[in-house]
Amino acid sequence: MSCCGANPSYDELDEVSRLVSAKLAAFLRTLRDNGFAIGLHEGRDAAALMAAGYAEKPGLLRSAFKHLFSARKSDWEKFDGLFDAFWLGRRVKSRSVTMGSAKAADSPSLKSLRDNKSQPAGGEAATDQIPGGDAPEDRAGEGRMEGASVASNLAEIDFRKMADPEQIEQAHAVAARLAKSMRTRLTRRDLARRRGYRLDLRRTIHGNISHGGVPISLVKRRRKEKPLRLVMLLDASGSMSMYTGVFLRFIHGVLDEFREAEAFLFHTRLAHVSDAMKEKDPARALDRLSIMAQGAGGGTMIGESLQTFNRWHAARVIHSRTCVMIVSDGYETGDAALLGREMAALARRCRRIVWLNPMMAWEGYAPEAAGIKAALPHVDLYAPAHTLKSLTELEPYLADL
Amino acid sequence: MKTREQIAQALAACGYIADADLATAISLMQLLKRPLLLEGEAGVGKTEVAKALAAAHATELIRLQCYEGLDQSAALYEWNYQRQLLSIQAHRGEDADAIEDQIFSEKYLLERPLLAAIRRDRPPVLLIDEIDRADDEFEAFLLELLSDFQVSIPELGTIKAITIPHVVLTSNGTRELSDALRRRCLYHYVDYPDVDREARIIMARIDGAGASLALQIARLVEGIRKEELRKVPGVAETLDWAAALVGLEVRDLHDAPELVHETLMCLLKTREDRSRVTREVTERLLGKVA
Prior knowledge:
The complex is a heterodimer.
Chain A: H1 10-14, H2 18-33, H3 40-51, H4 58-69, H5 73-87, H6 102-106, H7 108-118, H8 136-149, H9 165-192, H10 201-207, E1 229-235, H11 241-257, E2 261-266, E3 270-272, H12 274-277, H13 282-292, H14 302-317, E4 322-327, H15 336-349, E5 352-357, H16 370-375, E6 381-384, H17 388-399
Parallel strand pairs in A: 1-2, 1-4, 4-5, 5-6
Antiparallel strand pairs in A: 2-3
Chain B: H1 4-13, H2 20-32, E1 36-39, H3 46-57, E2 61-65, H4 72-75, E3 77-79, H5 81-90, H6 96-103, E4 109-111, H7 113-118, E5 125-129, H8 136-148, E6 150-153, E7 157-160, E8 166-171, H9 179-184, E9 186-189, H10 195-205, H11 211-226, H12 235-247, H13 257-263, H14 271-276, H15 279-288
Parallel strand pairs in B: 1-8, 1-9, 2-5, 5-8
Antiparallel strand pairs in B: 3-4, 6-7
Helix pairs in contact in B: 1-2, 1-3, 10-11, 10-12
InterPro entries (chain A): UCP010256, Uncharacterised_CoxE, vWFA_dom_sf
Protein name (chain A): VWA domain-containing protein
Pfam families (chain A): VWA_CoxE
């Protein structure tokens, strides 16, 4: 094996029979289809390995290819299945999850989102009702009625009564403005902090040689900037369906302006949606989202979703200046104790947790659901978020991170 | 070192029990001259791989510990400012250019790990530990170094590698690494060892740990890792615990359940975890250990 050296020449590669090269090329394609990032270089190395005798021992070849082609844990875990299926004709135990499934389009809450978007005044938007919520037929009408009396103050209309595309557009604008001001304030704070930086000795001495080494002009080290990061977890379950639309627009606005933001949707499971949300066109972003989320409407597993988040995403998306914003009504259908534990784990990680609850402003609402009760001790700010005004009121708090 | 078996044996001789996959990775590393990226939870023994590799090659281990804000001057080279200043003072009045040439010469250059690694006569093992802690910029800089193995120092010119080091990178997943870096490396995911391998690790590292005790310890640790803990014990913790038990002259865990429970502090490193594993839990876990 070691005889072939570091950089195998193409003569050696010729020894790989044509059949094998074709099969190898097909295998590389299969891997790429499954999300492996494989360049030409890896392909050449793989051919070299096969020529060097690895091809005769499937177990060894699998192990070698696994190291060569995997780039991250997810690749590492699905590689064996793909290899066996391709080379040994075995059935893959669990098929790798690929984005896009017909089921997603049927999910009730996301369907309602899209309906809200495309035909705003349409009656049958939300199929799942909030406990104690309005009947769907009343929604559009009531919105219009309130619109007539409180037209001057759009900011105070409850999102669930907001049906007019124009109003929704404005909500989006407010969200974008909010995000922008957060950024500006932040920059200002960083500027103010810039005093007292350390000396850069190397540059100082270099720059002062002509003065005989007397440090006349001082060069200072620049400080690494670490901007505020916002991680948003949005409840997309049935009970939140009336609010999800506007919040998705809000998140879209924030991601637009904020370089450092990540978004997740959860219902019975968690979906990372940052990339989909970075789509410039909000309508297209929503379309992509509906493809990504699956199984909505089966209750809200906040605890489990948080567990997934803590386990697989938190290390990557949370740093020391991170604010986690959870938008949910806190109706947990899973284990409330688990929710409490996961909230505690999350609180240890990030700077601050903001929990926005649209139901909070409802008359007679008290945080009595087991889920929200378990979560509250770990929340730094618990605020209502049912109108544009309430979102705007959050701004000073978020800017002061 | 040639075959996987030989590699595994050589590592075992240095106290590292590698599985077949890792041995393959190391043979590929030498065959393809690529760095090896090791990912895995904290405490699974990623750093140990590099140490054992250096021992097996009987070569030097050069370690670069990454941290936030790590820059080239700390990783690659630095000038010896004190000596430079003294030299400038001593040559006061002379031509400024001549002084400059003099103070930016090899004599005043301080090697840092990366520069040291490419200037050795014998290829060392270069361990770039916890690369995920370093910033994106540093990662990008590393990319260049790892593909060309040469460095340019503005005042001195380009320094080419005398030998190509064996490079091992480790990551705990604090930050997502760039695809560019991942693609340049061979990837190996280091998991917690299975019971059998952990028992062999204990036997290899702890004098006086017999096969049956090592197996019991490994089984109990496996049970503890399945409990819901904040900080899952790594291999280093297992070894601490095994050393403690051997030191206390425990031959069989069932003989000393009290001692077992009391010494669990070697494995459980937070107050929460300590209070979660109660006496009852210890007994339940012990019950599963045959």
